[in-house]
Amino acid sequence: MPQNARPELRVxxxxxxxxxxxxxxxxxxxxxxxxxxxxxxxxTERVGVRDRNVWRFRTAAGATIERRVGDVRIxxxxxxxxxxxxxxxxxxxxxxxxxxxxxxxxxxxxATGILREMEYFLALATA
Length: 127
Hints:
Blueprint: E1 10-16, E2 23-30, E3 37-40, H1 41-47, E4 51-58, E5 64-76, E6 79-88, E7 95-96, H2 98-103, E8 106-108, E9 115-117
Parallel strand pairs: 2-7, 3-6
Antiparallel strand pairs: 1-2, 1-5, 4-5, 5-6, 8-9
C-alpha cells in the first residue's frame, strides 16, 4: 500500500425488501467515486429485490456489460433510505457507491476517510 493511502473503508449494509419482510446484511467496501452500489445478485434475489431494468455499463477496459438493477431500502450506520442497486455478477466488485450514501444522508469525509452525516445546503435566490 502506498505510504499516503488509507485503508479501505468497509461498512455493514442492511438491505430490506420493498415488497416483503426479507432483509440481509452484508459487509462491503465504500467507494464514493462510484455512483452506484453493486450487490451480489444472489443477495438481491434472497432479499426479494425486483429488477426493474437492465443497464449498460462501460468497464475500465472499455468493454460494455449489461446488469440488472432494482430498488431496495438500505441502512448504513443507523441511517435509512432507498436506492437503486446493481445486481453484481461474481466477477464484479461489490461496493457501496455515492448515490446510496447520499440517500441515507452520509458522505465519506475526504480528510479522515470515515463516514459522516452530510451537511445540507439550501440554494435560495436572495434579493
